[in-house]
Amino acid sequence: MASSISYFLFFSSLLFISSSNAQSSFRPHALVIPVSKDSSTLQYVTSINQRTPLVPLQLVVDLGGQFLWVDCEQNYVSSSYRPARCTSAQCSLARGSGCGNCFSAPKPGCNNTTCSVLPDNTVTRTASSDELAEDAVSVQSTDGSNPGRSVSVSKFLFSCAPTSLLEGLASGAKGMAGLAYCTSFTVRFCLQLP
Ligand SMILES: *[C@@H]1O[C@H](CO)[C@@H](O)[C@H](O)[C@H]1NC(C)=O
Ligand SMILES: *[C@@H]1O[C@H](CO)[C@@H](O)[C@H](O)[C@H]1NC(C)=O
């Protein structure tokens, strides 16, 4: 599936803003993590680990997107998942669009008085209104040829999207990692073109 490998920088200094008790003992300015090109869709795909216990997730890299969003509807099991509340600092950082309620049993993506955000799938140009949440994330860095250290963040902000938002993404992808607004204050991925 992967036809070529390139790399992008992952600005972990920004990540730590929302991470008061990060597990990591080192805080580099940037991590380089591998990106491969999906040969059938030509989308760039990367991989991170999320949740407790950690689960590997393939994500489509979205040059224009603002958020990390992942499918929360299918198989989301994590003891460290926390929805962001409507009036929280996280909600203003992520420029929350409103306050959401949910009338079925509480689960990731369904809780009351949670911050709503509008993740979009920039492949199909579909947006949805979803719960902003935090969960643990771990990324494997690389120096460009060899695997480097893993960096863990205990509270990484993301949007908790429905499975339907995955439509049009590379096979196996569970969400998108947005790369826009590299210099803004919230948690972002930033790109270094190879
Ligand atoms: C949210 O509050 C409503 C009304 O109090 C309640 O019926 C519903 O079950 C709650 N939802 C969750 C996810 O707790
Ligand atoms: C729902 O919110 C309550 C606090 O209001 C929290 O204790 C609980 O963990 C949340 N449930 C889920 C599944 O996110």
- Please identify, by name, the CATH architecture of the domain at 6-81 and 134-191: Beta Barrel
Low-pLDDT residue intervals, each spanning 5 or more residues: 1-29, 181-194
Instruction: Return Rg in Å.
Output: 16 Å
Order of helices and strands: EHEEEEEHEEEEEEE
- The name CATH uses for the topology of the domain at 6-81 and 134-191 is Cathepsin D, subunit A, domain 1
Bound heterogens, unique: 2-acetamido-2-deoxy-beta-D-glucopyranose
CATH first level of the domain at 6-81 and 134-191: Mainly Beta
Strand % is: 35-45%
Largest beta-sheet details: 6 strands, mixed, barrel
Helix content: under 10%
Count of DSSP strands: 13
- Tell me the strand order in the biggest sheet: 3-4-13-5-12-11
End-to-end gap: 20 Å
Structural class: mainly beta
Mean pLDDT level = 78
Number of helices: 2
Summed up:
By secondary structure, the chain is mainly β. Helix content is 5%, strand content 43%.
Architecture overview:
With 194 residues, this protein is mainly β. It has a domain of 134 residues: Cathepsin D, subunit A, domain 1. Helix content is 5%, strand content 43%. The chain is built from two helices and 13 strands, in the order βαβββββαβββββββ. The strands form two sheets. A six-stranded mixed beta barrel has the order 3-4-13-5-12-11. The chain has a two-stranded antiparallel ribbon with strand order 9-10. 41% of the residues are buried. The chain binds 2-acetamido-2-deoxy-beta-D-glucopyranose (2 copies). One 2-acetamido-2-deoxy-beta-D-glucopyranose binds next to loops.
